[in-house]
Amino acid sequence: MKKMRYLLFSLSALLLFSCGNAKKSTVEAEVAQQPVGPTFSADSAYLFCEQQCQFGPRTMNSAAHDQCEQWIIGKFQQYGLSVATQKATLKGYDGTPLNSTNIIASYKPERTNRVMLCAHWDSRPWADNDPDEANWRKPVMAANDGASGVAVMIEVARQIAAADSLNVGVDFICFDAEDWGTPQWVESEGSDADTWALGAQHWAEQFITQNSNLKPRYGILLDMVGGEGARFYQEGVSLYFASTVVKKVWQAARAVGFGSFFPNDEGGRITDDHLPVNQKAKVPCIDIIPYYPDCQASSFGPTWHTVNDSMQHIDRSTLQAVGQTLIQVLFTEQ
Hints:
- Helices cover about 35% and strands about 15% of the residues.
- It is α/β, with parallel strands linked by helices.
- The strands form 2 sheets. A 6-stranded mixed beta sheet has the order 1-2-4-3-5-8, sandwiched between helices.
- Helix 5 (about 145-165) links the parallel strand 3 and strand 4.
- The radius of gyration is 19 Å and the shape is globular.
- The chain starts with 10 loop residues before the first helix and ends with a helix.
- About 50% of the residues are buried.
């Protein structure tokens, strides 16, 4: 999922991080937050993740994909949200027609003051980063790289619907066709960034033609938010387009006691669903995505695009950290 473009810290970033006293003073100067909102259930999110995986890999144009689509729609409707689908036939990197469905679930759709949460729900059809070359053309179960983000969103939806006390409307968008990007075994000339995040690209193109007054103030993308040992560094594209949202989210994580999961350091820049949301739809959107600086297999972690991206490597504590942070963000909105 997403083009792997995690970079080493730039010189300017290194200079910034060396100014430890200045950064510490900035953090200490923040207005202290008290934890607010309901308690996010990691067990519930874990179950929602598991239930998606029970369909099998949700690769494009598969029966498992279609079955999971109906399950996701049903879960959001179960918690009282309005659900719309955005269907399109998109073209894969190799010309394959991809029957794509973006799922858009809205809490209080009549409100003009809105926030967007999003994640992709499709599975990578090829485990092309697996250490065993024999697995490269096998599909990925995508427990973390796909299902975890959707699971956290569904649990957040369940919690806010039960509390029914938010001051903002929330749009939960499940992007499709994110993970059909060019496989590593294909030699390509130039950038292949446009072969990723196809559903988000389509959503953004449709969004700018709507002229709707229901534009979210900002968005938060959830990508691989359930992995073992995950730490969510501040991603570079997010800092460029939506630094105030990054600050808001990382402050919320500290307020609810999960600051250790959200280091105040930059991890790098990546191509992900938030890129077209920022560039095309002009909605400031950040990416909560892990960075493993010491992992030789991938900076996205050891299971990224491998057959080992399974429920065995989903960590409830990671789900809890991300979910409770989102609850804090939403329930402090005015």
